[in-house]
């Protein structure tokens, strides 16, 4: 069993409008845009990162906005809900705030005894805010949401699968333990991990497979401390039979990828070097930052990419 993985690093999804996506996560949810860059494999598409002040691992949701992309089809083999942690007693405040901003399909309930506010993102993606007592991560307050209610980072993700057997086995190999069960949902957590150390598997054996497009999660990234720990994880996964990519430099972290048995694309990302490697922390996410291999495209990209504000 691996001990290097500490919880979530980031979650990356697809969108249909960069402007709408940016407005939702900064103006409505109050997150900080910590990086404005491009998709390494499709540089005519943004890669937008939102999180806390520094973009700490376990706080960052990222998006590839493909202009005018059709909405994805919800189903199995994907992440069905991305959840953020909020302070205890603030679910009512958030439900009201979301309603005032015209957010769709707001619903309040409890999950494993914690108050939850579920709602749809701009492309129909299912998101939730969960009250997380004891989560002392400092929220970003620069976008008009006060510290008393601000989002702390990720709480968990919910993977909707036809069967949880092989996926659960993989999570246990990665250092997770099954800690609770609520109906069709089994909760896994990393003992001693970061505050974003929870994964839920929801089994839906009769549901149709998902179709990925706008509103779909592209991949889930798990956090390791550094490149040495990442190489240990890569070797162990390969020895277990997984097809794992070589290490890829993503400028702000190093990444490896593999497809999980349930169909969800997994990434293992390093906590180093972080988002301040090419921008002053006070100005994260303001300028368009390009990977070195695409810098020669800057003039064309600045004309092509949709203005965010």
TrEMBL record:
Domain of life the protein comes from: Bacteria
One of the Pfam families matching this protein, by short name:
Glyoxalase
Q: Where are the transmembrane segments?
A: none
| SUPFAM superfamilies given in the database record | Glyoxalase/Bleomycin resistance protein/Dihydroxybiphenyl dioxygenase
The record, for InterPro entries, names: Extradiol_RC_dioxygenase (IPR052537), Glyas_Bleomycin-R_OHBP_Dase (IPR029068), Glyas_Fos-R_dOase_dom (IPR004360), VOC_core (IPR037523)
Q: Which residues form the VOC domain?
A: 7-132, 153-271
Its recorded name reads VOC domain-containing protein
What species was this sequence derived from? Oceanicola granulosus (strain ATCC BAA-861 / DSM 15982 / KCTC 12143 / HTCC2516)
Organism classification: Bacteria, Pseudomonadati, Pseudomonadota, Alphaproteobacteria, Rhodobacterales
């Amino acid at each position: 069993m691996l001990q290097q993985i500490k919880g979530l690093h980031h979650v990356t999804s697809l969108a249909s409008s960069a402007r709408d996506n940016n407005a939702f996560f900064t103006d409505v949810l109050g997150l900080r845009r910590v990086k404005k860059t491009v998709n390494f494999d499709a540089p005519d598409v943004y890669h937008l990162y939102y999180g806390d002040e520094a973009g700490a691992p376990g706080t960052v949701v990222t998006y590839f906005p493909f202009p005018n992309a059709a909405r994805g089809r919800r189903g199995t083999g994907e992440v069905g809900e991305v959840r953020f942690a909020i302070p205890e007693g603030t679910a009512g405040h958030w439900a009201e705030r979301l309603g005032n901003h015209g957010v769709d399909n707001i619903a309040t309930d409890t999950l494993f005894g914690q108050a939850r506010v579920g709602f749809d993102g701009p492309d129909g993606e299912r998101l939730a805010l969960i009250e997380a007592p004891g989560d002392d991560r400092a929220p970003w307050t620069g976008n008009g949401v006060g510290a008393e209610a601000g989002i702390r980072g990720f709480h968990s993700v919910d993977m909707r699968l036809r069967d949880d057997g092989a996926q659960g086995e993989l999570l246990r190999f990665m250092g997770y333990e099954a800690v609770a069960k609520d109906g069709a949902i089994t909760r896994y957590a990393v003992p001693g991990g970061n505050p974003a150390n929870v994964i839920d598997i929801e089994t839906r054996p009769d549901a149709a497979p998902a179709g990925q497009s706008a509103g779909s999660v592209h991949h889930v990234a798990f956090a390791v401390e550094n490149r040495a720990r990442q190489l240990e994880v890569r070797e162990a996964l390969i020895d277990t039979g997984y097809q794992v990519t070589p290490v890829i430099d993503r400028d702000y972290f190093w990444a490896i990828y593999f497809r999980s048995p349930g169909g969800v694309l997994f990434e293992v990302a390093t906590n180093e070097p972080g988002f301040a490697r090419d921008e002053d922390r006070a100005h994260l996410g303001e300028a368009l930052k390009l990977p070195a291999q695409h810098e020669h495209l800057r003039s064309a990209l600045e004309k092509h990419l949709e203005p965010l504000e």
